[in-house]
Write a structure and sequence with these properties.
alpha/beta, Rossmann fold, 5 helices, 6 strands, 31% helix, globular, hydrolase activity, Alpha/beta hydrolase
């Protein structure tokens, strides 16, 4: 799929990822990208987040590719359980938090429990770090396997956010490009 043929819905995680985050930078670089704004970034309601993402998908006029980070990855797994006929062609899923087993994950993520394990109804790529404080690499592989996602290990990259030194994240753009090459319009 060509980049010009899709709408990109950028889905930040808890706290809206913050300024300088690669998602906000990508939103400025991709002509057809929009950040999906949630009503409450800090005390998220799972049903509200999922409904907001579904509404953004419905309102898109072209095929959709989701670009999710952190808690938004778990929200995409919930969205995938509710979509029947969809224009979502793929999802780029980065740094999912292990909200079930990791005690360091913020309590505000608990409304998203349990994490869905059914395959996503669209192609996806999950990118995870072997030094993410919120998810072990083994759990990230488990999520990718359950969801039917291609898996890419990003190395020692922390939570793949500004705090771990990932502002523009050009390596991520290369991975995203590989996903786009696999997708059908």
């Amino acid at each position: 799929m060509k980049i010009a043929e899709a709408d990109f819905l950028i889905l930040p995680g808890l706290g809206n990822s913050g300024p300088g985050h690669w998602q906000h930078r990508w939103a400025g670089r991709l002509a057809n990208a929009a950040i999906v704004e949630q009503a409450d970034w800090d005390e998220p309601d799972m049903d509200d987040w999922v409904s907001t993402i579904e509404q953004a998908i419905i309102m898109s006029t072209r095929p959709v590719v989701l670009i999710a980070h952190s808690l938004a990855v778990i929200a995409v797994a919930h969205v995938g359980q509710r979509l029947v006929d969809t224009k979502v062609r793929g999802a780029f899923l980065v740094a999912p938090p292990d909200i079930e087993l990791n005690p360091g994950v913020p309590e505000a993520t608990s409304p998203f429990l349990p994490v869905p394990r059914d395959p996503l109804p669209f192609p996806s790529m999950l990118v995870a770090s072997n030094s993410d404080p919120y998810c072990s690499i083994d759990r990230a592989v488990e999520f990718a396997t359950c969801w039917g996602s291609d898996f890419h290990q990003a190395g020692d990259a922390g939570h793949i956010n500004v705090d771990s030194g990932h502002g523009p994240w050009p390596e991520g753009l290369l991975m995203f490009t590989r996903l786009m090459q696999r997708l059908k319009a």
